[in-house]
Amino acid sequence: MVNYIEASSAPSKNTGAIRLYGPEAFEGMRKACQVTARCLDELAAVVRPGLPTEAIDRFVFEFGMDNGAIPATLNYRGYTKSTCTSINHVVCHGIPDAKPLREGDIVNIDVTYVVDGWHGDSSRMYPVGTIKRAAERLLEVTYESLLRGISAVRPGARTGAIGEAIQTYAEAERCSVVRDFCGHGVGALFHDSPNILHYGRANEGPELREGMIFTIEPMINLGRPHVKVLADGWTAVTRDRSLSAQYEHTVGVTADGCEIFTLSPGGLDRPGLPPLNRLMPE
Questions:
Q1: Distances in Å between the alpha carbon of 9 and those of 4, 19, 205, 215?
Q2: Cα torsion through 115, 117, 120, 121, rounded to 10
Q3: What is the pTM of this model?
Q4: What does the CA dihedral 43, 46, 51, 53 come to, rounded to 10 degrees?
Q5: For residues 32 and 9, what is the distance between their CA atoms, to the nearest angstrom?
Q6: Residue 166, phi then psi, degrees to nearest 5
Q7: Distance CA 110, CA 7 (A)
């Protein structure tokens, strides 16, 4: 049985109940998420061949300090970096290091800032120099998958509708959906209920209600969906070493749909690809 609770009276830990937030929380999330979105915008001019991913990590840390924001990943469950940088066949949770980016790489940069107690969580893919058409197509399919998942969000629908919209599209494009990781509730907590699966059926999962806040962050592979976690305990990679991509937005359920809190103020929601003049699938 799914329990819902008014966020203002919820304990400061994930109890499995789904928090329903009010207008003040939505305003706090707008502020936090826009700091994250502005950082991701500025990274579009930073990412280049030869740049070590630890330089990206420093940029994210310093941007946060300059804007009154704390990187949520820093010292989270023993993680020592301010961001995750996942390159090529790394699905998620890649750890920044001294290894430089190379021409033709694709890299996901995942940033979560805490501003006044609110968590703004988002990630984008960045082409490094000129990339192959197969990689570009994967980025296009993954971003479209995100939009299709977002388009399913409305009160009365179920979380499975998000997963079905993503899975149906991605698999029709001969890609696969990672099942080992999912979106999640967010807001006053970094990771909260419910889990948002990126596959499934529309009649499955908890009912979406006004005031819910969560991430949608599909991980799409060119090859098979299977992943493994490396010995560092964080880095997840595709088992067949096929390319993987991910885009992530934080959304809040409204009376008639949803609000995307992490939209790029500069129109750079998919850096390196032509901008789209729409927020939902046609």
A1: 11, 9, 24, 22
A2: 130
A3: 0.96
A4: -20
A5: 21
A6: -70, -50
A7: 26
